[in-house]
Amino acid sequence: MINKEYLSKLEIYNFNKYELLDKKEFQEVEKYFVSNEFVVDIIVGEINAFAHMILLTNKRLFTISKFIQTASQIKQFGLEQIEDVKLGVMGDTADLRMLFKNGNIFKIDYLHTEVAQKFGYNISKMYEEFIKRL
Fold first, then answer.
1. pLDDT tens per residue across span 23-59
2. What region holds the YokE-like PH domain (predicted)?
3. Nearest to 109 by CA among 131, 88, 83, 84
4. What is the rounded CA–CA span in Å between residue 119 and residue 115?
């Protein structure tokens, strides 16, 4: 798998979630990747009281939720759509709020603080790199 080969060489993002790449939800979303798109980070959190896998690539952000037993609901957001990312911390638990340029907001709840900080950092890093390529 190209993503596993790439991620094994990618030290800057400290990727350590290889087990999530084997999940059915990841395999469903991977077919939507465009050329030169690769995984940067994956987290599992709660959005609107439902568990989601949130996948960050170098080009987009995906949310994947189990819709029914046999399928998942996949949403995608371009990095250029993200206006702001905010971290809310309460001890070891944190949430990430993403504000999009169209005014939409979604909040990822029940994350470990370190996981939320790293994911937020990776979003801002990918956004900067995306803007530089324009």
1. 788 888 888 999 888 888 888 899 988 889 899 998 9
2. 35-119
3. 88
4. 6
Q: Which residues are within 8 A (CB) of 16 and not within 5 positions of it... i.e. 6 or more apart?
A: none
Q: What is the pLDDT of residues 74-125, one digit of tens each?
A: 999 999 999 999 999 999 999 999 999 999 998 999 999 999 999 999 999 8
Class of domain 17-132: mainly beta
Say what the pTM is: 0.83
Question: What token pair was written down for 106?
Answer: 């979604």
Give the start-to-end residue ranges of the domains of the chain: 17-132
Kind plus residue range of the DSSP H or E element containing 122: helix 113-133
